Amino acid sequence: MSTIAENISTLAERIRSAAQAVQRDPASVGLLAVSKTKPASDLREAYDAGLRDFGENYLQEALGKQAELSDLPLIWHFIGPIQSNKTRAIAENFAWVHSVDRLKIAQRLSEQRPPALPPLNICIQVNVSGEASKSGCSPEDLPALAQAICALPHLKLRGLMAIPEPTDNPDEQNASFAAVSTLQAQLGLPLDTLSMGMSHDLEAAIAQGATWVRIGTALFGARNYGQP
After folding, report:
1. What are the φ and ψ backbone dihedral angles of 68, each rounded to 5 degrees?
2. pTM of this prediction?
């Protein structure tokens, strides 16, 4: 068994155990492979081991992998910060966008989504920890943004995404993820997605309702930022 396949098996067991610990169906938690800086060959290996959903942060890198892996029925998620000049390519080439944090970006994605494609699945990124260095809509601005996105014709608002301030303290992890769950519940909208939790804190995220955990390091190993 390859290392990637072994890692997927280990992650599946972590997800299963975390879900069962809070009486959740493990099948309600999706594993989103965060593949930034990783070569297409690694994604192909992950596909062969059963994964179908891949999250990319960098548009040009993602488009190259999409071309190289066009023979595979992969589901592509854009999870990085979005610049206005990148929205057309994102709208045309992805099934999900997890990182919408302002109305201008949502409007451009809706306008530029090809009519022949299904509505683009959207998660609003919320800055639950209030970190100045993090992207994300403030909790105060979230209700108005959510309502506005719901009115856009070529988008489907699915839920929230968050990257809380990193901590090894399980109580702090749980509190941050619980805050995201509460914000989503308070919207009063028919949402089904909470994109939260990474390699180091997926158990706490699942305990608080995560439906996607975004896993990079524990799946593919350390990232190679120095590679061309």
Report:
1. -70, -25
2. 0.95
